[in-house]
TrEMBL record:
Classification of source organism: Bacteria, Candidatus Uhriibacteriota
Span of domain Amidase: 25-505
Source species: Candidatus Uhrbacteria bacterium RIFCSPLOWO2_01_FULL_47_24
Protein name according to UniProt: Glutamyl-tRNA(Gln) amidotransferase subunit A
Keywords: ATP-binding, Ligase, Nucleotide-binding, Protein biosynthesis, Transferase
Active-site residues, Swiss-Prot/TrEMBL: K80 (charge relay system), S155 (charge relay system), S179 (acyl-ester intermediate)
Subunit (UniProt): Heterotrimer of A, B and C subunits.
GO cellular component, one term: glutamyl-tRNA(Gln) amidotransferase complex
GO molecular function annotations of the record: ATP binding; glutaminyl-tRNA synthase (glutamine-hydrolyzing) activity; transferase activity
Amino acid sequence: MPKLNELTIAQAHEGLKKKEFSSQELTKACVDRIYEVDEKVNAFLTVTEKEALAQANVVDKKIKAGVVPGLLEGIPVAIKDVILVKGVKCTASSKILENYIATYDATVIKKLKQAGAVILGKTNNDEFAMGSSGENSAYKITRNPHDLDRVPGGSSAGSAASVAAHECIYSLGSDTGGSIRQPAALCGVVGLKPTYGSVSRYGLIAMSSGLDVIGPFTKSVEDARIVFEAIKGKDPMDATTVECPSPDLASARSPSPTRGEGESRQFPSPQGRGQGEGTLRGMRVGVPKEYFIDGMDNETEKTVRQGIAQLEKLGAEIIEISLPYSPYALAVYYVLQPAEASANLARFDGIRYGHSVLRPSPDLAFAQSPSPSGRGEGEGLYGVYAKSRAEGFGDEPKRRIMIGTYVLSAGYADAYYKKAQAVRTLVKRDFDDAFTKVDCIATPTSPTPAWLIGERMTDPLSMYLADIFTVSANIAGIPGISVPCGKAHGLPVGLQILAPQLGEDILFRVTGAYEMTVSHNS
Ligand code: GLN
């Protein structure tokens, strides 16, 4: 019998409904686990224990009074520290926001609160979600629960590690270039990056507004679906959101909106077919040759190929495809992402909120001796901006601000920014073409399993290469999911499945069927 904190959402929901345990007991089990392991794992920046237990108490009273709880009601969740929870500190793991307390709830938080969720606290991440290892936080380095000497991946490091270490039942992260899928793969949990625009970004501290999306980390595919259904949908506060198909409509729709034949394909539901062969009959899975590259870890490749062979056993037709522009996706990303980030981070200026040389922070030794005027060598307002930013931002945001400002500057914007936008369209077209031939695409999530802490910190390029298989989905705006598919060198490996825009249902069907057979075999 698993401990309460080890349950999935679906299992916890059943237990609450049957009154086998209370939400307070479930929440307490998670809080106890945080006390037990977080000193080592370092997943949390803020734990809202009191508020969590109070909310659990509210749910327990309702259940006692005979109300049947909703799917997420009374279930503890951890939130990446780039998503605003009213009244709770939100730092983006940056010193520049070290004393910022959110004044409103992000739309996803509003939705979770309406669903009765128990918010356990805020998780550590790479500063402003820039990074692939969790080491870029200004506060702490999150460790991989499978091997504490290794990174958990990033940027949603704490959200992935807290689920893997059973400090919560599920968590929310954000994915701009892979920050949900890559840490999910390295920590051996499920991570969903929804279609761009399917989940509201209102209340998410913006990094790259044309790429960012919020999504869940969970212990099962079913749970990922439950959370996605709860947080998705059009939001008047985010003009880029769209109405999403309901799950029933989605299963009846053509798997490829770009096919244009108006034909509707039905896929057998995994539940209806048991765990065996044939569950994925009729499903065409593309395997792009550009995603098995030289230099990729051999054991990781072998494990992912075994995962794909398993899909074939389930009845899927495996088709080799080509995404010829994919090799350019990483270069496109590292022009567009810094460009958008440099614009978004301009608001952190030492005047409106966060760290300011006008309000020296006791934590920053070099802020102890501001110039006598407190205004940066008497440079007036500009001096306040420059000095506050110099002190408040860490190395990685500074690097991105410089790259972004450069690629947007007069004389260079055509050569870099506009060129990258044009290639972005080509990457997207690659996927459009591929989805006329296949229903979904299977790839590795990461070219290697978790690496040692410190190993890549002096070489930003090797860190950027960690995103090589994930960024293309953000460039094309399509959904992707990473599910555990075995181990390499004793460490978790992720299988990534990509689908056309708004094709989350296809992801859940394929990985749901896969997960069932894998857990039954093991
Ligand atoms: N690792 C990538 C980066 O550093 C992706 C980050 C993310 O998805 N937030 O930009």
